[in-house]
Amino acid sequence: MTIDDYILHHIDPEGDYLYRLWRATNIHTIHGRMASGHLQGRLLKMMVEMIRPRNILEVGTFSGYSALCMAEGLEEGGKVWTYEINDEMEEFTRPWIENSPVADKINFIIGDANELAPKLGIAFDMVFMDGDKRTYKETYEMALSILRPGGFILADNTLWDGHVIDPSYEKDHQTKGIEDFNDYVAKDSRVEEVIIPLRDGLSVIRKK
Fold first, then answer.
1. Residues with Cβ < 8 Å from 68, sequence gap 6 or more?
2. pLDDT value for 53
3. Hey, which of 5, 59, 143, 191 would disulfide with 131, CB 3.0 to 4.6 Å?
4. For the packed helices 37-51 and 16-28, what is the interaxial angle rounded to 10 degrees?
5. What interhelical angle do 65-73 and 16-28 show, nearest 10?
């Protein structure tokens, strides 16, 4: 048994619907590992239960796994607004969201969150960033502008498989995007931040 196996055997279960979505994502999509999965999914739900947001913005829906997990943690009346820029994912993702037990708590939108989310006129309590790594800084600034004071941004993949400290990836645009984002946030006096070395790295950022 690996340490990862041990952890998964000692946390809340994934649930049958999420397990089936995880399997389907890995079978039917090219980048199945991009889905949050059991451990991160339970952490996202727990973070929602701790922060108790009314409105959550997600940038990068992919197959919908993380949106479902966050919606599970929402109180009555809470909503996840989730944006996916790749319209080719809609045929796979929309049925999984709309047939889920938390469908009424999720608004799934195809489009660019950086352009569309500010037009909602909503002050968000929490943002989960998991979109294009090349534009993480721009997404961060957008998110910060519509996040209430004291609200949280969770940014996924901020260790990027360790590539952020590997010189051989210095010309990779996605790695550069993550590095620039990490450097930018670390110097940003508007927020406080911690990076959790979970999976691919999860930054927890609080707006002062």
1. 17, 18, 21, 41, 96, 97, 100, 102, 106
2. 98
3. 59
4. 130
5. 160
- Nearest CA-CA partner of 40 in 78, 11, 74: 11
Label residue 11 left, alpha or beta by phi (over 0 means left) and psi (-120 to 50 means alpha): beta
Alpha carbon distance 122, 27 (integer Å) = 36
Rounded Cα distance between 147 and 51, Å, is 13
**What is the CA angle 14-30-48, rounded to 5?**
35
Whole-prediction pTM value?
A: 0.94
Q: Which two tokens stand for residue 133?
A: 């790594």
Query: 153-183: buried (b, 16+ CB within 10 Å) or exposed (e) per residue?
Result: bbbbbbbbeebbeeeebeebeebbbbbebbe
How many DSSP H helices and E strands does the chain contain?
A: 8, 7
pLDDT tens for residues 55-77?
999 999 999 999 999 999 999 99
pLDDT digits (tens, 9 = 90+) for 166-206: 888 888 899 999 999 999 999 999 999 999 998 889 999 99
Residue with tokens 């969770």: 154
